[in-house]
């Protein structure tokens, strides 16, 4: 249904290991990673096919322009099932209608919650043998590629088309240029600051979700649920740490505001000690209202408890609503509802997928056309309703989106601020994200606020 589940990210050190494991070594390291690898060479991809690559600036552009046919477009992604597969199918159907002369080679890498693809891409890019483009979280997640000078500036060739610069809000534009220049095209947005709820349960408990003003107040609401119904206060999974990491980030955002949230992503941990420790304590306070089997179930199994009336509240990205929409008789605004996570009204917390433009591109002109299309109204109108996400463009018609996503589109368009996901690497680079994940794993294993905070102080070092 979604690619929400988290694998551990690979640190900066692993980029170098990936380079050493590949068929071509990376020379002329820029900072910690490579630039180099000039000239044409033939290598074997992870899928086993041979690919001829040009210079690091896409040196085969002239050949492609002179040819009557575009070179084949190779796009790698991890959308191999559920809503992701349906969405990417719709995307490429639309692209083929616009550009029937471009052959598309989808080369998906399933499994590992996207981690398998990330490993393949790191090896291929550092070996100067990238695909034409690939599914990638934007923002700081792409920072190592930018620092290694592996991504092309597409501010003029792509972002100056389709009114993209005016149709995208500032948050999505910011994550598209992690090094100050546009290098990728976001195609969707999954909102993270959601609080979902079973309407019958909260009504029976006498709780109004919209009236909960800040995360710490949610504790009293959950207590009221458990005192007045047979449901638990909050459905949650702690089998893996990522759900709790997401939850903590929204608590920090809602309790202490955007400035504190952003300061944390900039590594200002000790300067915000009270806010960080208080937010950890609030999540620990939530724990007494989790389902008893939280440590042994998945997020989808936790979400079923909301559908079945066994839980009042559920925090998750808006991919969770895909389960509600597919459930007969469980309708938005009558059986289930959603409000922005307490304290985050007017803010849209972003998780996104994008398609970058690598240097040394095997099909630069075809890739340019593909990324231009991904940034268009037509592409985002086809892709997002099936994915259960909303477009980063604010001018996409709402006709094909249901009532919940239409409301999310309105919230995004009217949002005063858009913040980047910590858990998905938009806000913090891979090594810091890996350290953050280790700290949150410590938290969910022992619920020790002081020990977790101590680890977080070292996460950005």
Topology diagram in text:
Layout: H1 12-21, E1 41-44, E2 50-53, H2 61-66, E3 73-76, H3 82-98, E4 104-106, H4 115-126, E5 133-134, H5 143-147, H6 164-167, H7 170-175, E6 184-186, E7 190-191, E8 194-198, H8 199-205, H9 218-228, E9 232-235, H10 242-265, H11 273-287, H12 299-307, E10 311-315, H13 321-325, E11 336-340, E12 347-351, E13 354-356, H14 364-374, H15 377-387, H16 403-413, E14 417-420, H17 430-446, H18 449-456
Parallel strand pairs: 3-4, 3-5, 9-10, 12-14
Antiparallel strand pairs: 1-2, 6-13, 7-12, 8-10, 8-11
Can you walk through the features of this model?
The chain has 461 residues and is α/β, with parallel strands linked by helices. The chain is 41% helix and 11% strand. The protein is built from 18 helices and 14 strands. It has helices spanning 12-21, 61-66, 82-98, 115-126, 143-147, 164-167, 170-175, 199-205, 218-228, 242-265, 273-287, 299-307, 321-325, 364-374, 377-387, 403-413, 430-446, 449-456; strands at 41-44, 50-53, 73-76, 104-106, 133-134, 184-186, 190-191, 194-198, 232-235, 311-315, 336-340, 347-351, 354-356, 417-420. The strands form 5 sheets. It has a 4-stranded mixed sheet with strand order 9-10-8-11. A 3-stranded parallel sheet has the order 4-3-5. Strands 7-12-14 form a 3-stranded mixed sheet. A hairpin with a 5-residue loop joins strand 1 (41-44) and strand 2. Helix 3 (82-98) runs antiparallel to helix 15 and helix 8 crosses helix 9. The protein starts with 11 loop residues before the first helix and ends in a 5-residue tail after the last helix. The relative contact order is 0.18. Residues 1-63 have low confidence and may be disordered.
């Amino acid at each position: 249904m979604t690619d929400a589940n988290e694998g551990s990210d690979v640190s900066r050190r692993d980029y170098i290991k990936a380079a050493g494991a590949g068929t071509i070594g990376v020379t002329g390291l820029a900072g910690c990673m490579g630039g180099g690898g000039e000239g044409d060479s033939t290598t074997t991809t992870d899928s086993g096919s041979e690919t001829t690559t040009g210079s690091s600036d896409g040196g085969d552009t002239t050949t492609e322009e002179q040819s009557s046919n575009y070179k084949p477009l190779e796009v790698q992604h991890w959308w191999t099932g559920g809503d992701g597969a349906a969405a990417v199918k719709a995307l490429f159907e639309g692209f083929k209608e616009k550009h029937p002369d471009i052959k598309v080679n989808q080369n998906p890498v399933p499994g590992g919650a996207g981690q398998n693809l990330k490993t393949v891409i790191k090896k291929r890019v550092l070996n100067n043998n990238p695909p034409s483009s690939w599914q990638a979280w934007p923002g700081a997640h792409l920072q190592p590629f930018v620092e290694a000078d592996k991504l092309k500036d597409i501010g003029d060739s792509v972002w100056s088309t389709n009114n993209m610069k005016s149709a995208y809000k500032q948050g999505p534009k910011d994550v598209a240029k992690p090094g100050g220049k546009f290098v990728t095209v976001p195609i969707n947005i999954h909102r993270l600051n959601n609080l979902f709820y079973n309407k019958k349960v909260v009504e029976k408990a006498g709780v109004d979700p919209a009236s909960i003003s800040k995360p710490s107040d949610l504790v009293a609401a959950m207590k009221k649920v458990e005192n007045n119904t047979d449901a638990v206060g909050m459905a949650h999974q702690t089998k893996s740490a990522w759900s709790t990491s997401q939850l903590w980030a929204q608590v920090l955002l809602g309790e202490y505001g955007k400035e504190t949230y952003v300061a944390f992503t900039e590594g200002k941990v000790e300067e915000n000690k009270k806010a960080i420790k208080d937010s950890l304590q609030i999540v620990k306070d939530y724990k007494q209202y989790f389902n008893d089997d939280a440590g042994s179930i998945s997020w989808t199994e936790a979400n079923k408890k909301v559908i079945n009336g066994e839980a009042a509240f559920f925090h998750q990205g808006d991919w969770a609503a895909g389960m509600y929409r597919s459930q007969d008789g469980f309708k938005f605004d009558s059986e289930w509802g959603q409000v922005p996570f307490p304290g985050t009204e007017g803010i849209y917390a972003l998780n996104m997928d994008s398609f970058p433009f690598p240097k040394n591109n095997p099909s630069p002109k075809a890739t340019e056309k593909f990324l231009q299309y991904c940034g268009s109204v037509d592409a985002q109108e086809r892709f997002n309703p099936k994915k259960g996400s909303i477009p980063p463009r604010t001018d996409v018609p709402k006709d094909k989106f249901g009532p919940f996503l239409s409301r999310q589109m309105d919230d995004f368009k009217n949002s005063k601020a858009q913040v980047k996901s910590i858990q998905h690497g938009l806000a913090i680079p891979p090594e810091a994200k890996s350290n953050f994940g280790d700290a949150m794993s410590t938290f969910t294993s022992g619920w020790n606020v002081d020990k977790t905070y101590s680890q977080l102080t070292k996460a950005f070092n």
